[in-house]
From TrEMBL, chain B:
Belongs to the binding-protein-dependent transport system permease family. This is Sugar ABC transporter permease. It is a multi-pass membrane protein. It comes from the Bacteria. It holds the Pfam family BPD_transp_1. Its main location: membrane. The chain crosses the membrane at residues 12-33, 71-92, 104-125, 154-178, 199-222, 266-290.
Length: 466, 298
C-alpha cells in the first residue's frame, strides 16, 4: 500500500510540474531590448570553449539538400567555433514558431516569407539587422528593400534572395493542335483560345483552362493578381493612387473568367481542384493553360515529370501591357530572432548565406529566381526545363505592398468566384466589396495596424518610382 | 480517521484528471469567454469591443449559411447512418458465417485517418478522372461525367463519405446493445409464434431504447461537429455549399495560408465558437428532452 501511495504521489507531483511548466511558458520574451552578447560569444574564436550552438528553422523543403550542404560548409569553415543546426519543418511552420517563442525555445535564425514576416515583426519576434549591415551589403541590396516587406518602421529585418514571378503556363502541343500560334496577349484571346482547345480536345477529356478553385483566393492570387499588375492595376484590389480599395478593375478580369466558365472551357471539377491535382492533369496533357508561380518548372522536373511540350509566357492583359508583372514573395529570406542569445554569431551565419557564391548557386540550381540585381545579372540561367519563360525580365518589378486587411464577410476571391459561377449584379458586388474592404482598412488605420499613404503619381509601369 | 484517509486517497486519484481538465478544458474556455468581447488577432493589443462581435455574428451571412449547411449535413448523415448501422448490427448479431471478419471490415473506417480516407474519396469522386464517373460511363448509366464535387452535388458527396466513415462505429455500439438483450425473450417469442419482423419490432427495438437514445445523441453531436473530411475534400466549397459551422470557425482561427498574409481572428472566432457551442448544446438538450420516452420502454 505504501509503495503504491509513493508511486501515486510521484505521479501527482509529475503532473503538477507538467501543468506548471505548461502554464508558465509565455510572457518572458516580451523585452524589446536586443540581447547582450553572452560569455560564449565573448569566447568566440577560442576553440577550446564549447561551440556556439545556433538553431536555424525553415519551412523550405525544395532546397534542403543545398541548404544542408551550405550549413555543413559553414560549420566546418567558420573560425568562430559556431555550429548551426538546421531544422526543416513541413506544415504548421508559423504555429511552431509561435509555440517556440512563447515557450522560450525560439530558434536563432528563421526563414521569413512575405506571408509571415509582418506578423512575426508585430509579435516582436524579430531583431533589426541595420546595425550589422556593411556598406557593401547596403549597396548590394539597396534597390530591393521595400517598406512593410523587409523594412518596418524604418528598420530592416531581412534581406532578399529570390522571388517568384507569375506567368501563364500553357501546353504548346494543345495550342498547336487547336491551330493557335501564340499564347494569348489579351483576355479576349485567352477566352477564345480556351474555347478552341476545348472544342478540339473535349472528346479526349481535354479542356482549355483550369485553376485551383478549391481555394478561390489561392486561385485568383496566382492569376488575376498577375493579369491586373501587368494591365496597370495593383493585383489585390488596392488602388495605390488613392490609397483605397477599388475592385472595379478586378471585376473586369473576372468577366472573362466567367465567360470561360459559361463556354464550358474550364476543366470540369475545377471547383474542387487543389494545385497538385491540377498540375497532375496539366502534366497528363488535359489542360490547355493556367496561371501560376515560377515554382512550376521545378514541379514538372521533379514532382510531375511530363512529356508534354509546355512553356511559361507573360500573362494576358485587359487592354495591353500598361503595368509590370509583380515579383511576389520577394524581399525576405533569413531573419534573426530577437530572443537569440547569440545574435553576433547568427549574423555571421547570415552573412555567409548572403554571400555572392551562395546566392548565385541558389539561383543557378533553380531553387528560386534571384531578385538581387548583382546576382541576377551575372548568374547563369538555371538548368531547369521551362525556367526561361519565368526569368525576371524588363517587364517584371517589385510593387509597393497593399495593406493586409480582414473585412467582415466573404473575401474578394470567394465573392468573385460566386459571381463567376452563379452570376448576379457585378456593379453591386464591386460596391459591396469596396465598402467592406475600405471599412476594414479605415478600422486598421485607426488602430494603428496599417499605414496608408496615397501616391497620386504612382506609375504602374515603374512601381518603385525609380 | 479512516474516513479522512480515504478522502485523501480519493482526492489524490482525482487530482490528475482535475488538473488536466483545468489546464486543457476550463482555462481555454475562460480564455474564449473573455476574448469574445475583444478584437484580437493574436498579437498586439486586444481591444475591448463589448458586444460588437455578436452584432457582427447576427449580420454574418456566411455564418448563418454555414449553420444551415450543418443541419443539412448532420440531418443527411444521421438519416443514413443510424438505420444502416442498426441493420448491419442486427445482421451481424445473427448466426452468419464469417461475421467476425465482416464486423472487422465494417469497423475499419473508424480506425483509418479521416484525412487519408478523404483524399481517397476525392480521387473516387472527382469529375475529371474519378472512378465513380468512369464506372457509370462504362456501363452507360450516364452520358456526361457528373460533377460530384460541384455546387449541386458536393453536399451529397460529403454526406456519403461521412456515412461511410461512421456506420461501422455505430454498428459496433448497436452490437453491444443487442448482445445485452436476453436470448430467452426471443426464444419465448418464437414459441409464441412471433416471426422475425415481429421479434425485431416488439423486442429488439424497445429493448434497445436506452442504448439507442445514447447512440443517437452521440451521433447528433458528432455530426454537428464533424468537419474534418469536408475540409480535405472541398474545403467548404464550392462557393460555400459545404461550409459547415465548425469548418467556418476553424478557418477564422486558423486561416489557410494563401501565400499572401492571413490574419487570425481570435476575438470574432471566440464569439462564433460560443454561438456554435450554444447551438449544438441546445439541439442536444432538446433531443435529450424529447427522447426521454425511449428510456422508459421497459
Amino acid at each position: 500500500m505504501s509503495m503504491m501511495k509513493k508511486a501515486m504521489l510521484l505521479g501527482v507531483n509529475l503532473m503538477l510540474i507538467l501543468a506548471l511548466v505548461a502554464c508558465g511558458g509565455g510572457g518572458s520574451n516580451t523585452s524589446n531590448e536586443p540581447k547582450e552578447s553572452t560569455t560564449n560569444e565573448k569566447n568566440e574564436g577560442n576553440t577550446a570553449a564549447a561551440p556556439v550552438q545556433l538553431q536555424y528553422w525553415t519551412d523550405d523543403r525544395h532546397d534542403q539538400e543545398y541548404i544542408k550542404e551550405m550549413v555543413a560548409k559553414f560549420n566546418e569553415t567558420n573560425g568562430d567555433n559556431i555550429q548551426v543546426e538546421l531544422t526543416v519543418m513541413s506544415e504548421n511552420y508559423t504555429q511552431s514558431v509561435d509555440i517556440a517563442f512563447s515557450s522560450n525555445q525560439a530558434p536563432d535564425i528563421l526563414r521569413l516569407k512575405s506571408a509571415n514576416t509582418e506578423a512575426f515583426f508585430k509579435k516582436g519576434y524579430l531583431q533589426p539587422i541595420d546595425g550589422y549591415l556593411t556598406d557593401d551589403m547596403k549597396t548590394k541590396f539597396s534597390s530591393v528593400i521595400i517598406d512593410e516587406v523587409n523594412r518596418f518602421d524604418g528598420q530592416i529585418y531581412s534581406l532578399p534572395n529570390t522571388g517568384l514571378t507569375l506567368r501563364l503556363v500553357y501546353n504548346k502541343d494543345l495550342f498547336d493542335k487547336a491551330g493557335i500560334a501564340n499564347p494569348p496577349a489579351t483576355l479576349q484571346e485567352m477566352v477564345d483560345a480556351a474555347k478552341k482547345i476545348t472544342e478540339v480536345g473535349k472528346s479526349e477529356g481535354i479542356y482549355g483552362f483550369a485553376l485551383n478553385f478549391k481555394n478561390p483566393k489561392q486561385a485568383f492570387d496566382r492569376s488575376v493578381r498577375e493579369i491586373l499588375s501587368l494591365s496597370g492595376y495593383q493585383g489585390l484590389g488596392f488602388d495605390l493612387k488613392t490609397g483605397q480599395f477599388d475592385f472595379a478593375p478586378y471585376a473586369q478580369v473576372i468577366e472573362y473568367f466567367k465567360q470561360m466558365h459559361e463556354d464550358g472551357s474550364i476543366l470540369p471539377g475545377a471547383e474542387s481542384l487543389d494545385i497538385d491535382p491540377l498540375r497532375a492533369q496539366f502534366a497528363a496533357g488535359k489542360i490547355g493553360m493556367y496561371l501560376s508561380f515560377s515554382t512550376e518548372p521545378g514541379v514538372y522536373q521533379d514532382q510531375f515529370p511530363t512529356e508534354i511540350n509546355w512553356a511559361g509566357a507573360l500573362a494576358p492583359t485587359l487592354d495591353g501591357q500598361k503595368g509590370t508583372s509583380e515579383i511576389v514573395s520577394a524581399g525576405t529570406w533569413l531573419g534573426m530572432s530577437k530572443t537569440s542569445q547569440h545574435q553576433d554569431a547568427a549574423w555571421k551565419f547570415m552573412q555567409f548565406m548572403y554571400a555572392d557564391d551562395v546566392l548565385t548557386t541558389y539561383h543557378e540550381k533553380g531553387f528560386g529566381i534571384s531578385v538581387v540585381p548583382s546576382i541576377a545579372e551575372t548568374a547563369k540561367t538555371p538548368d531547369v526545363k521551362g525556367m526561361e519563360g519565368f526569368l525576371i525580365g524588363e517587364k517584371d518589378s517589385l510593387w509597393p505592398v497593399a495593406p493586409n486587411v480582414t473585412p467582415e464577410g466573404a473575401n474578394y476571391a470567394d465573392t468573385f468566384f460566386k459571381y463567376m459561377l452563379d452570376g448576379g449584379d457585378v456593379q453591386k458586388t464591386v460596391e459591396d466589396l469596396n465598402q467592406r474592404y475600405n471599412d476594414a482598412l479605415a478600422k486598421s488605420v485607426e488602430k494603428g495596424e496599417v499605414k496608408v499613404t496615397p501616391n497620386p503619381s504612382f506609375d504602374p509601369a515603374n512601381p518603385q518610382g525609380e | 480517521m479512516e474516513k479522512l484517509k480515504r478522502l485523501q486517497e480519493n482526492s489524490l486519484f482525482l487530482l490528475p484528471s482535475v488538473i488536466l481538465t483545468l489546464v486543457l478544458g476550463i482555462y481555454p474556455l475562460i480564455w474564449m469567454l473573455r476574448y469574445m468581447f475583444y478584437d484580437y488577432v493574436g498579437y498586439g493589443e486586444a481591444l475591448f469591443v463589448g458586444l460588437d462581435n455578436f452584432s457582427r455574428l447576427f449580420r454574418d451571412e456566411q455564418f448563418w449559411a454555414s449553420v444551415g449547411n450543418t443541419f443539412v449535413f448532420a440531418g443527411g448523415k444521421l438519416l443514413l447512418t443510424i438505420p444502416l448501422s442498426l441493420l448491419l448490427a442486427v445482421l451481424l448479431n445473427g448466426k452468419l458465417r464469417g461475421r467476425n471478419l465482416l464486423r472487422g471490415i465494417y469497423f475499419m473506417p473508424t480506425v483509418i485517418s479521416t484525412a487519408v480516407i478523404s483524399v481517397v474519396f476525392y480521387n473516387i469522386f472527382n469529375s475529371y478522372n474519378g472512378m465513380i464517373n468512369q464506372l457509370l460511363m462504362k456501363y452507360h448509366l450516364i452520358g456526361q461525367p457528373i460533377d460530384w464535387l460541384g455546387p449541386k452535388h458536393a453536399m451529397l458527396t460529403v454526406i456519403i463519405v461521412a456515412v461511410w466513415g461512421a456506420v461501422g462505429n455505430y454498428m459496433l455500439l448497436f452490437l453491444a446493445g443487442l448482445q445485452s438483450i436476453p436470448q430467452d425473450l426471443y426464444e419465448s417469442a418464437a414459441i409464441d409464434g412471433a416471426h422475425a419482423g415481429q421479434r425485431f419490432w416488439h423486442i429488439t427495438i424497445p429493448m434497445l431504447g436506452p442504448v439507442m437514445q445514447m447512440i443517437i445523441m452521440l451521433a447528433i453531436i458528432a455530426s454537428l461537429k464533424g468537419y474534418e473530411s469536408i475540409m480535405v475534400i472541398t474545403e467548404g466549397g464550392p462557393i460555400g455549399k459545404t461550409e459547415v459551422m465548425y469548418l467556418y470557425l476553424y478557418k477564422l482561427l486558423f486561416p489557410v495560408s494563401t501565400g499572401s498574409p492571413v490574419t487570425q481572428q481570435f476575438g470574432y472566432g471566440s464569439a462564433v465558437g460560443f454561438a456554435t457551442a450554444i447551438i449544438v448544446g441546445a439541439i442536444t438538450a432538446g433531443y435529450y428532452f424529447l427522447s426521454k420516452r425511449m428510456n422508459k420502454v421497459f
